[in-house]
């Protein structure tokens, strides 16, 4: 079976600062047409900082879509044309006030491929040195250091719902073995 779709028409419904929304008319592999709603996003980077004691530095911040405070790895949106690692280096220092001697590429993930084109690149950051936080003017967060095993326990007990952080923690823990 041919697994592809041909885009016949695109209509932009919304263009914003963080994302765009478009509606596509596609031709399916059986020749029929269907509508697809697509969220366009420039992509992001997630960095799992690991200090010399083996603790991970997570951040706690309010997330409006969920109306709650979420514990997650430092992360951010890529600027147009920005390389993923450069974004990760920038976000790590902005959010945690740390720079790293070494970055390990943990791959990339598609957070919701049914409707969103976002790609999140994931890195572990090792050999941390403290500098100074540089939060965006609309960004408020607390840095939360914790043992890796404690963070993994939160994942296992469904107390850390952020997908990119779960992936970063699980992939890093497999590497660290």
Describe the 3D structure:
The chain is elongated. The chain has a four-stranded mixed sheet, with helices on both faces. The protein has a three-stranded antiparallel sheet with strand order 1-2-3, with no helix packed on it. The protein has a three-stranded antiparallel sheet with strand order 6-5-10. It has helices at 84-96, 148-156, 163-176, and strands at residues 6-15, 19-27, 33-41, 44-49, 55-63, 68-72, 75-77, 98-109, 120-130, 141-147. Strand 2 and strand 3 (33-41) form a beta hairpin. By secondary structure, it is an alpha+beta fold. Helix content is 20%, strand content 46%.
Strand content: over 45%
How would you spell out the order of helices and strands?
EEEEEEEHEEEHH
Strand order of the largest sheet: 7-4-9-8
Query: What oligomeric state do these chains adopt?
Result: single chain
What percent of residues adopt helix (DSSP H or I)?
10-25%
Low-confidence stretches: none
Strand-pairing-aware structural class? alpha+beta
Q: How many alpha or pi helices? A: 3
Q: How many β-strand stretches?
A: 10
For the sheet with most strands, the description reads: 4 strands, mixed
Quote the distance from N terminus to C terminus.
Answer: 41 Å
Mean pLDDT: 96
Whole-angstrom Rg: 18 Å
- Overall geometric form: elongated
Task: Give the key terms.
177 residues; three-stranded antiparallel beta sheet; four-stranded mixed beta sheet; alpha+beta
């Amino acid at each position: 079976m041919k697994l592809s779709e041909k885009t016949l028409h695109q209509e932009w419904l919304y263009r914003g600062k963080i994302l765009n929304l478009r509606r596509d008319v596609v031709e399916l592999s059986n020749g029929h047409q269907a509508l697809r709603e697509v969220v366009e996003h420039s992509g992001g980077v997630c960095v799992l900082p690991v200090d010399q004691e083996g603790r991970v530095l997570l951040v706690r911040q309010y997330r409006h879509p969920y109306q709650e405070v979420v514990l997650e790895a430092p992360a951010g949106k890529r600027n147009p044309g920005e390389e993923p690692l450069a974004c990760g280096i920038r976000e790590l220092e902005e959010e945690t006030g740390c720079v790293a001697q070494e970055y390990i590429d943990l791959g990339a993930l598609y957070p919701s491929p049914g409707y969103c084109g976002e790609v999140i690149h994931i890195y572990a950051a090792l050999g941390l040195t403290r500098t100074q936080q540089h939060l965006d003017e609309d960004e408020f967060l607390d840095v939360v250091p914790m043992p890796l095993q404690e963070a993994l326990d939160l994942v296992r007990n469904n107390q850390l719902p952020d997908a990119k952080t779960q992936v970063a923690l699980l992939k890093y823990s497999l590497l660290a073995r």
